[in-house]
Amino acid sequence: MPGFTLELTEDQQTLQKWLHEFSEKVIRPAASEWDEREETPWPIIQEAAKAGIYSLDFFASSWGDESGISLPITMEELFWGDAGIGLSIVGTTLGVAGILSNGTLDQIGEWVPQCFGTEGDVKLAALAVSEPNAGSDVSSMKTTAVYDEAKDEWVLNGVKTWITNGGIADVHVVVATVDAELKARGQASFVIGSEFKGKGLSQGQKFKKHGIRASHTSEVILDNCRLPGSALLGGKEALDERLNRARERAAALARGEKLDRTRVKGGQAAMATFEASRPAVGAQAVGIARAAYEYALEYAKTREQFGRPIVENQGIAFMLADMKTKLDASRLLVWRAAWMGKNNVPFTAGEGSMSKLFAGETAVEVTEKAIQILGGNGYTREYPVERWHRDAKIYTIFEGTSEIQRLIIGRAISGHQIP
Known about the structure:
This protein is of the alpha+beta class and 419 residues long. It is built from 13 helices and 11 strands. The chain has a 4-stranded antiparallel β-sheet, with no helix packed on it. A 3-stranded mixed β-sheet has the order 3-6-7. A hairpin with a 4-residue loop joins strand 4 (144-148) and strand 5.
């Protein structure tokens, strides 16, 4: 296990520089246009594929870094360019994470390459968890998966909402309830190929959003979607074993027994994916915050009022000092959590949630202060800080709200099941 260090290797420095140049030359110049269009930026995704960024090999290399730091570096640099376009490029990794967290080795080998496609034939993937009445409360999920033993098929019905790449993806990973009495422990993940689009899976409402508008977000509707038994990630035997353990656990709790609360892999299909992704999501927020901080700092150095640069006023300098301090603290929390996750160091105090919580709230605060430093200019679309502020807000909401992150941390540090 490599020791935790803040010194980047030569490969990580090269990665950082390469991604920064792509963001600076390709993503950022196109950001305003695609924000206004509110459409998937296919030309930018294709450019990323040509550059080798949107590919299985690239993300496998980032995930494979033993330090765990390459993936946060990737997220920070791409989202420094633009969050909406950045999410369009990395949104597929949500579906990939769902497959990696719950699938067998054969399923991973079969489906993960299909999530990206090839340079000449780009594909997308989506992870469908949230529902109209099951956002933070994953246990309230109503989408069902019923096993037809005679045909070895699963029949899925329900509506998913707020799904990145929902409906337009070539591969959907859908979390559904197989045993409602077990709530979150009675859920499983299914992988659905493009052949089912229009044949049980369809796109519902596409959402017009406050921010990250270049990223496609919509409902996914499942209407008697019949999938082969092999679509169940992890396989039927593993699911049956897990459900039996969950039933035994429920019975023991009903008898008043105190149980070990250590999480077992695959124990909750949605939570396994969220835990793996939180530091990466935090790194995205760091990228947005850094963009706003750097822009506000340069503006404050050149903008003059009362005969001097506004940065020479304590009111402005102190704001910038707070922005930089929280930005760097966010990155440190993200890197720590990423290193812990990669090296199987348990999150005993909710360290993954800490990174996402602090980075998300910092992004909102830093972008708001950037608008304040730019004054009236910051409030107009002629300057990018208002867009960054709109983009930042989602990081206190998706992938677990700030309140849910605090709940996870509170439970971890107290050892109590706080309701």
